[in-house]
Batch of 3 targets.
Target 1
Amino acid sequence: MSTTSISSIRTPFYLYDTDLLQQTLAAICAETEKYDNYHVHYAVKANANPKLLKIILDAGLGIDCVSGGEMERALEVGFSADKIVFAGVGKSDWEINLGLDNNIFCFNVESIPELLIINELAAVKNKIANVCFRINPNVGAHTHANITTGLAENKFGIAMEDMEKLIILAKSLTNVSFRGLHFHIGSQILEMDDFVALSERINQIQDRLDSENIHIEVINVGGGLGIDYQNPNTNPIPNFKDYFQTYHQHLKLRPGQSVHFELGRAVVAQCGTLITQVLYIKQGSFKKFAIVDAGMTELIRPALYDAYHKIENISATKNIRLTDSVAAVESEETYDVAGPICESSDVFAKGISLPMTRRGDLLAIRSAGAYGETMASQYNCRPLPQTYILEELGQE
Ligand code: LLP
């Protein structure tokens, strides 16, 4: 066991709580075990850190990937190819070949030209590729406009009116095997009614296909379950019970069908924290800035989507706990917490209340386990963030 303490590590860095990840996975498995033929493929785009992937593998989940790089990462960690689904509107030939060479469970196909290329590349290898069609269900999700995907205006999926045409085409091709349908309406969805709407749309589609004697085996409903960014301490595990129950109650399955889920954020968001150090407290003309050493290069969500992440001053909290005296609790101040990157949007939070904050204090930017490390960049020639596992660090 390492004796490194949090305050001796160079900031900024990601800190992962793998106990919480394990509890989250246990909650997912407890719910899916209640239903026949429910399979979860972890959406590796949310976080591809090998240490976390190993834990997700051990819990028995499969993988949803959207690039050859993600597929390689999943295979390196040990995920079995027969639990890998591969989606994406723009699959390159080498990525399709990688999927074919490894005999992945399914390609989620997003267009006719893509279907024809998969058939062609599979023919060269004398293989038959399993394909599902990603259908754009034209179902809105109550979430940020940049992360809704299931509307007719979005670039994703195949229009419902073209579905039969594609299925008939797939059945006529010799090197693809049509297995079912795939959907994904968006991300950070907290209203179960959105998943009800998707289930109802799938029911309509299935009725239509039944009347044309088309049977499907696989129904993949995508991911999208949201998390509580406001209250990571009191609500660390998403509501998997309601999520899976919603599908169980509303999705009408035919005999032998399996239901597949592609959860990303809900699996890993709460187990990750971005730790950053305060460099300067700067008094502006009408507000105070806490300038920190992490920026949009480590966590782009606030800059890109105006996303909220709870921020805690863990140095101040620690002092309060150590002295255990009400008198020692310093007054709160209002800050904009901003990074060092040369962009005005490089701000993690505006006008938030923190205990009096000083140079050298460590801030914890919470719920950063999903779409944090994976979206990091090297803008301004910054190094990619280091990562640590909470359980491997010694106590302060
Ligand atoms: N399946 C498909 C086809 C997807 O496009 C996505 C996410 C997922 C599954 C996983 O969705 P989740 O369960 O994580 O909601 N960078 C944004 C989120 C983009 C989500 C893209 N697709 C953010 O930071 O909020």
Note: Residues 278 and 292 are 4 Å apart (CA to CA).
Target 2
Amino acid sequence: MEIREVILCKYGEIILKGANRQTFESSLVKELRRRASPFGIFKIYYLQSTLYIEPKNDECDMDGMYETAKKVFGIVAVNRAAVCEKSMEAIVATARAYLPAKLAGKKTFKVDAKRSDKRFPLTSPQICQEIGGVVLSTVRGIKVDVHNPEVTVGVEVRDEYAFIRAGQEAGAGGLPPRSAGRGLLLLSGGIDSPVAGCMMAKRGLEIEALHFESFPYTSERAREKVMTLAQEMTEFCSRIHVHVISLTHVQEELRDRCEEDYFTILLRIFMMKLAERVAAEYKCDCLVTGESLGQVASQTLKAIRVTDSVVDLPVFRPCIGMDKSEIVIEARKYGTFDTSILPFEDCCTVFTPRHPKTQPRMEAVQEELRKVDFEGLLDEAYATMQTETKLVYPEYR
Ligand code: ATP
Ligand code: MG
């Protein structure tokens, strides 16, 4: 018997109620279509709170499509299902053909049946019983466990077809891509900022990235590392424009003219001011950083207060209350950890003061800033900006 398989994705229904619903649904469809191209030709649409991904021919790479669907924010669960006609005979025959291979080696299961078409002649409990019988008679050694099953077999009778699946997996969760506006991520080569970017993308933020380098104090390879990180982030964040600004002259001026202890905080002020300019040019309504309270000298409350006060935009710091070990777990989940720990220098580690001020006062900071041509240096740094675009599957577009 020939089985037609599709991928079904569920989105969080509660958050999608109201006027935004359609926009959210179509942005999920758009995102899936964008990601589908390397895996073949699919028909992708939504119906009754479910996204359908139907392969149009046998050449489609269903595994690849399935894996990429799991990385789309806004989708809470993903499964593969066999499609069949809406009759109990067809459902039973399909279950017989489809389920044994999917359930081989499993110890316990239960069946969960849903009818969105209430005219279907059997009730949900009756469907469960029939399909439960099919599984028990075709899968060796499997038992029913309604409380804690290893796999839940799902049968859904919908408007046009019935769907049968064995298990489902969690999706990436969060809100649909680009549903929350655009933010500018200050992206270093470290562990924290890529995680911060992915966390905000999860809440629907479109991520634009800004990296500061300090060539020749930082190397070409350090920049390549950041580009690799941005590329890895696209798996979850989709397209990312990465802007790179050189802070070389700023750092030399700070080194030559200012108190060493203030160096870190002054550099951060330059970063924030430049980020604000980039945000204005690229229409970003917030900044995002990977700061975590107290992690280093520039991340004490007083230091954060100073850096926050120089910009008008909201600054989101999703890692602020996380321990390093928790951030590492996220970095592994988002696939950026291995690149983040490659040992290349960052501009923050160039000319680091021996005793950075952990409790900077704004007046003292301003006095230091007066020792350099603040606006002139900002203009000069801004003019060094270069931009690269990273795509989920660069080879296909
Ligand atoms: P990360 O692991 O993200 O590098 P960190 O623990 O090294 O963070 P800092 O170096 O103090 O902390 O940087 C704090 C935040 O400032 C980073 O998370 C990032 O958002 C931003 N930042 C630091 N260096 C750079 C850089 N070279 N370019 C762009 N943003 C940077
Ligand atoms: Mg860093």
Note: The two ends are 37 Å apart (CA to CA).
Target 3
Amino acid sequence: MDAKAKSLRARGYNVINFGVGEPDLYTPNNVKKETIEAVRKNFTKYTNVMGTIELREAIAKKLKRDNRLDYTASEIIVSNGAKHSLYNAMLATINPGDEVIIPNPYWVTYPYQVKLCGGKPVFTKTDEKFIPIVDDICNKITKKTKLIVINTPNNPTGAVYPEKILRELANIAMDNKLIIISDEIYEKMTYEGRHRSIASISNEAKDCTITINGLSKSHSMTGYRIGYAAGSENLANAMARIQSHTTSSISSITQYAAIEALRDNRGIAAMRSTFKRRRDIIVKGFSKMQGISMVKPGGAFYAFPNISETAFARQRKQSKSLSDSFAEQLLEKEKVAVIPGISFGSDKHVRISYAVNDNTIKEGMERISRFLS
Ligand code: PLP
């Protein structure tokens, strides 16, 4: 959809692109300055495969400061974006035939990565607020289950898992000797309360968790390609062995700049309030639209409205995916790009990214309203 939106834009159409998965804000100036400084200082060579010791110590400090987690540098490995960290974590843990529990809706990449590792994704239900249903997870655990993948704040739903659920998930993992991969890339976009890392629930929870995070979203550094995984030293070493034969260390320049980003959190509060304001515009806009229902997203920069009760849903041809045809028609008629929910496991929804400015959001909401009326 993003590519289609861009191609329409190139042909001169005024397209509103709610499809993007990256912040529209610039990388902070102090981080850009350090990026240039890295080159100036000739910090342009291979580094330790796991990342420089300075960077891993800065990550350990951040995990302590922001997440109340005690990790040493030897338990942390830096990779080319959180996506790469996730893949390393899966490659290090999944054997062919292993089952991986993924609450639905889910970020598109998880099932593909599981399959690339020879594993089998097992989708479990979430409730009306997109919080995992713990009983359903318990029912779907078999002898082959190896991992549970969780993501809070969540892409695509914006759900933030309550601490109670995190505790229950940690207990399930401990009781069944499973590993939790906890993707916390949207941590800094939590609008009510604070983000809670599942590994901070208890020492036992930490022992069975691989925490994934990065700077793509928190510092608008998507193009720098930096993510990291924190887990036991054994797992970090396993991931390092994989990485040493695939991509080696990440860019030295990125690593140098990342230390500054981790050190200086000053821009985060302003970024969070910008996204919160935009979230509120979206929530208000959809509340006025006939047939649309939406759970107020507590985090990330996505809204996931339910379109299954709209006039469009009632009138469409049954043969095609609802969310696909909704997204196609909306782009064709009103030049608004949204992502069909079917790619995230729910055909009743579409995903709206509000990583665009307020006026664009308002204009987009007007167009969607017109499309629905
Ligand atoms: N995890 C989730 C849930 C995401 O939405 C994304 C990016 O969209 C990533 C991980 C990947 O982040 P990165 O760009 O650091 O690889």
Note: The radius of gyration is 21 Å.
